[in-house]
């Protein structure tokens, strides 16, 4: 049986509560993880588990709505990238078995109202959770900036107007033989393409990571009370390859029977202000820049569009190409 991928479990409390030496120590641990496997499990991160559980319940009630109703909030514009995407409508050169809902800070035109999900307060609850994720994400970026001597406010300065993406993900219960067909998965191998991602997962399992891109995917098992954080493509470019954006996928949990239970996860994808130019930061005399400078806004739209193409029949988004997702 495959062993689990070796991802450090790091307490964030000394960064939030501690003194300078404590903060530096957390920064060092984070950088060590981000520059090797590219992922950490963060614990004591300040978002209570009860709140995370509440958001999973909210996601469940949303996905239980009839498909026709969910389609009224259909994601229709990759530039905005907000709303509902049905099972089969998105993957990247393979076939994913998932449905999702994207929530943004500034643009939420395709969002359920109070009467759609009575008592859930969908928008206000998600807005609130979004802000908690944004605060945590920016603290993690501050910690990384400290480790890399970029100046403590480096990431604050490029995220003042940032509009990250909170995604509710549902992988419906499915027969194992379907997702184990060639080219199928719950989500096929990809890297994320923003700066970094916070990922909350339920207890079902199936997330796997290929840390050194050798094809050897290993489980990243759920650890209650933690949030996974991974580096994404823009961060790899910005740090001239020092921080690593690594391949991951969601497949059958290694211990599953013939019928996989439904799985839920909640990623939060952090992207910088759209006008930011991402130029690799070099640290050594004569260091060669491994990546071209890119505009963050164009990068995001270009990569989002790779996930979709405009369907010919009804003008909706469907289909996909490429490797990276969000
Ligand atoms: O569901 C998961 O655990 C991973 C989701 C993911 O990788 C993504 O949405 O980019
Ligand atoms: Fe991902």
TrEMBL record:
<dbReference type="InterPro" id="IPR027443">
    <property type="entry name" value="IPNS-like_sf"/>
</dbReference>
<dbReference type="InterPro" id="IPR044861">
    <property type="entry name" value="IPNS-like_FE2OG_OXY"/>
</dbReference>
<keyword id="KW-0408">Iron</keyword>
<dbReference type="Pfam" id="PF14226">
    <property type="entry name" value="DIOX_N"/>
</dbReference>
<dbReference type="Pfam" id="PF03171">
    <property type="entry name" value="2OG-FeII_Oxy"/>
</dbReference>
<dbReference type="GO" id="GO:0046872">
    <property type="term" value="F:metal ion binding"/>
</dbReference>
<dbReference type="GO" id="GO:0044283">
    <property type="term" value="P:small molecule biosynthetic process"/>
</dbReference>
<feature type="domain" description="Fe2OG dioxygenase">
    <location>
        <begin position="161"/>
        <end position="272"/>
    </location>
</feature>
<dbReference type="InterPro" id="IPR026992">
    <property type="entry name" value="DIOX_N"/>
</dbReference>
<dbReference type="GO" id="GO:0016491">
    <property type="term" value="F:oxidoreductase activity"/>
</dbReference>
<keyword id="KW-0560">Oxidoreductase</keyword>
<dbReference type="InterPro" id="IPR005123">
    <property type="entry name" value="Oxoglu/Fe-dep_dioxygenase_dom"/>
</dbReference>
<comment type="similarity">
    <text>Belongs to the iron/ascorbate-dependent oxidoreductase family.</text>
</comment>
<protein>
    <submittedName>
        <fullName>Clavaminate synthase-like protein</fullName>
    </submittedName>
</protein>
<keyword id="KW-0479">Metal-binding</keyword>
<dbReference type="InterPro" id="IPR050231">
    <property type="entry name" value="Iron_ascorbate_oxido_reductase"/>
</dbReference>
